[in-house]
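Annotated sample (chain length 107).
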Amino acid sequence: MSGRENDGHYEVYWPRSPRQVRTKPLAPRLKSFDGKTIAFVWNYLYRGEEIFAWMEKELKSRFKDMKFVSWKEFGSTHGHDEREVVAALPARFKELGVDAAIAAVGA
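Output written by the structure step:
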């Protein structure tokens, strides 16, 4: 220890690194669902196929011209290739004319 007095105070360093990812603003909410295309995105856990079928039926009863893109178009957002699946979503959404997505996860 050096000969200086520290009076019980020590220099410390924060063990975490600086943030690597900056916060991005969220996309604006849709003003209406009329005429919109909605994608279902799922991690293939806990009954998503049933829940999405129910959601599609209910939403169609309220918004007659709403369209849907099945979760089967995208692949599982959980598992060995989840990074690739998630990374491909923006391009797939653009290709399929998706206006918004409903993402479901297992319990």
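Annotation: The beta strands are 37-42, 67-69, 100-104.
Annotation: The longest strand covers residues 37-42.
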